[in-house]
Amino acid sequence: MTRRRTAALPTPVALLFLLPAATLFAVFVLYPMATALTYSLFSWRGTAQDAFVGLDNFVTLLTTEPYRSQLPRAFAHNALLFAGAMVVQNSVGLLLAYALHKRERLRRLFQVLYTMPYLVSPLVVGYLWSLLLSPLFGPVNAVLRAVGLESVAQPWLGDPDTALWVVVLVTAWQWVGFPLLVYGAALGSLDPTMEEAAMLDGATSRQRFWHVTLPMLLPVIGTVSVLTFIFSMEAFPIPYALGGSNGSPAGATDVMSLLFYRTAFGSGASNAIGVSSAVAIVLFVVIVGVSVLFTRWFRRVERRLT
Amino acid sequence: MNRRTTLAAVTTALVTLTLAACAPSSGSPEPGAAAREGCDGEAVGLDVWSWRTEDVKTYEQIFDVFEEANPCTTVTFQAHLNTEYDQILRTGLTGSDGPDIAQVRSYGLLQPLVEGGNLEPLEDLVPALGDFDDALLDGARGREDGAVYGVPLASQTIQVYYNTAIFEEHGLEEPETWDDFIALNDTLLETDVTPLAVGARDGWFVPTVHDALTAAQYGGADFQQALRDGETDFTDPAYVDSVQTLKDLQKYMPEDVTGVAYTDAQVLFTSEQAAMFAGGSYEQAFFQEANPDLDLGVFQVPPPPGSALDHPVTAGYADGSWGLSATTEHPEEAETLLNWLATPEFGQLVADELKQFSPIPGVEFSDPLQQEMWDLYQENPAPYLLLVDYRYGDPVGTDLMGEAGQKLFLGDTSAEGAAQIIQDGLSAWWTPGE
What we know:
The complex is a heterodimer.
Chain A: H1 11-40, E1 42-45, E2 48-52, H2 56-63, H3 67-101, H4 104-115, H5 122-132, H6 139-146, H7 160-175, H8 177-189, H9 192-200, H10 205-234, H11 237-243, H12 256-266, H13 272-305
Antiparallel strand pairs in A: 1-2
Helix pairs in contact in A: 1-13, 2-3, 2-13, 3-7, 3-8, 3-10, 4-8, 5-11, 7-11, 8-10, 9-10, 10-13, 12-13
Chain B: H1 3-21, E1 44-50, H2 56-69, E2 73-79, H3 82-94, E3 101-104, H4 111-115, H5 134-137, E4 151-152, E5 155-163, H6 164-169, H7 178-189, E6 194-197, H8 205-218, H9 220-228, H10 237-248, H11 262-270, E7 274-280, H12 283-290, E8 296-299, E9 314-318, E10 321-324, H13 331-341, H14 344-353, H15 368-379, E11 381-383, H16 385-388, H17 397-410, H18 415-426
Signal peptide (chain B): 1-23
Organism (chain B): Promicromonospora umidemergens
Keywords (chain B): Signal
């Protein structure tokens, strides 16, 4: 048995090159993370660390108001943001990528156009849309009324039934370029002979998409889904711009990051640092836990297909 | 899907967590403490921090006045971004390169610094504090020990602004009674202007509007005292009535008011599409800048029949004060500066140059509208209740009123229900009488 050479560089040299990044990672990610964990295990008196309380802050989160009702509500909203992003943003992204795949000349142009909103800060995107959707001065309702769709004109951000979906759509508007680019790249790397073979066998274009192209895209769909999950759980700037730190109206757009922000910086509670750190840890555990489970499950599905 | 994706996922998630423990450091250089002309002792530099980035130049001129009288002390004024200030200040006061004197928030948001032992109690150091209005000093008190931790810098009052041109056009006058107030709203409702510019999409604005319109109905300072004494809570009929009044006045506000942003309401008023705006004294500068032709008046809303009080009131609150760092290296010089910050000389500069309500006794305001707002408050003061006493825990009273008010406007709850939301929310950390 011969040992396969797996690395381009000898190990000591590779470690040397990894060192700077690893140091930065340790100082700016691992250290603060460990600090947040320790913060959440202590009670606080303002800025002063008080006694070690073990998991008390987590118990507080789960058993006392306002956290007991706000935490599940915020999580549910994050989950809806994820579901919405999967349905709207990723499926539209995939369709657009597929539509552009065989159109060499248009592809570049539209890829650039669809990714443009990327370049704008999400906070700015949020404020722009909140202006566009204003029931008093917003052009969206004005246009709807002008073309006779008065019944469709809504106080989009003022109604708890529509506000969260506005957040989903605005997020999709900004990020649809992400799945578009990833799926576009994946489509470009697929072996075209597979599709040709299916075509010769008489498969319609719909059959070719569902039974040939889509299964081959599964690994990429998995990756995009996990990243979408993480982005959705971390959503902050767009919900903040559209609904403020309380998730207006009446908490309809409240998400985990807003809850964290309010708990940490918005209250006069003595133990704000302890409880807010616990919120951060819970969010972290959920993101890592679900991401790992989802990845494993997806790998199993993939194996079954291949 | 490979291991690398998992790793990427975990790494990205880790970054979230850094948010929690992110400690912004601020490298404030040691101020140039060179001895100036007229100084025969040791030169000392004092660092003063603030969240008023827009006032840096003016403050530098104001502190020039102090430096002239105290040639050995150099004041370096540093402003940090308002939204990041609290974090920067907490770090600065616990570290080694923090300020000697800093602007600190009022009421609940002051407590983390007091409890952390970052500020010095001031009553013994600044004798002039004894002359301040007691209600405004409450903004600078530690909740547990009752000591004063700041020299009040500014206060805000809440009233109704009106567009005098629109009032004249329709033959309207400042209302003397509740019926007058309703009659003028009805008159305006028949015209193409919105009577009351309100934006309820921003939750924080709802309690401001509520107190501007109904503080006298629930009893203002008397109700505050009854709550403090444990004689009642927020489900009190008088308070419920005041919430009902807010709901009754909704017909004079823009349609779909929960979809209207606070800034939309400001634009509605400054573009003369609305006749009245219930808001804080801090609006005046913006209104006049946004539309210099706007002719403004202010009034207190008369209480409806059956109110707890028989006269109108103006709600007010302390908005920031000057605190002394517990770790200052120059306590004597800092004490001298703090005492100057409590003098009418400084207060007058704040009033004239910064256009703010300095609560220092003896200060006068050159702007007639500003003077009128201040006089109305002095005659019949009331607390901006939910901000003044109910921001010492989580959830804060103003947030609760924001959410309850939005539900009220949406028709998702009644006045009783809204009052119950506030009471239930506050009971997480507050018991009447404690």
